[in-house]
Amino acid sequence: MTFIRSLLYAIWFYVLLVVVGLLAMPVSMVSRRFAIGSVRFFAHIQAFGLWLICGISTEVRGKENLPKGGPGLIAMKHQSTYDTIAPFMFMENPAYILKKELLKAPVFGVYASRVGIPIDRAGGAKTMRLMLAAAKKATEGGQQIVIFPEGTRQLPDTPADIKPGIVLLYNELKVPCVPVALNTGLCWQGSGFLRRPGKIIFEVLPPIAPGLKRDVFTQTLKDALDPATVRLVAEGRAAQGKG
User: Fold this and answer.
1) 145-168, pLDDT tens digit by residue?
2) Which of 36, 54, 135, 241 is 20 to 30 A removed from 112 (C-alpha atoms)?
3) Structural domains of the chain, with CATH
């Protein structure tokens, strides 16, 4: 049954990606605001599809901790592709740090170029400079920079491994850093096909004020993400009946 539900959801996902993506593309190519609205609409219908087809609910907690109408740095755990979609439902004006290869994806790549800051993960110091310049420009426009501080998707029980990119942005942007914990990997595995019934939770945690030293910030971010993630994963497993 899980396989059949997952197959039906895959059809739902890709058909709507093409339909919504192509219909909204002409205006999205010239209007970032319209592009964000289109991705937000797509995110809502994906959340509905997950609930309807796969028995997966999506809950967001702590939205009051997000920046209100201004810039910020969002440090989000990363367990699933869903982490790149669902936050458009509860964030005002996100700009994702993403790998440049995504720009080549059919349909999706157009929207990635409008709502993201593409980077070459093999580019070393040059990549960092370009990322920082683009992030500064985005925050000046009131956008919230979304970055996965671990760099890539992790299994649900993996402790946070904070990479240098988030530290650089925190030091240079001088805006509050808002951690986001989640448990998406229990229902939507990072690279897997199956969508398992359960309860997905995104929890926006209290912001970390700017100005901390590198080591202090890194430990503060880890101390925020790790216990919250453990708690959400435990809650998700209990909802799945796995204790």
Assistant:
1) 999 999 889 999 999 999 999 999
2) 54
3) 2-239 (3.40.1130.10)
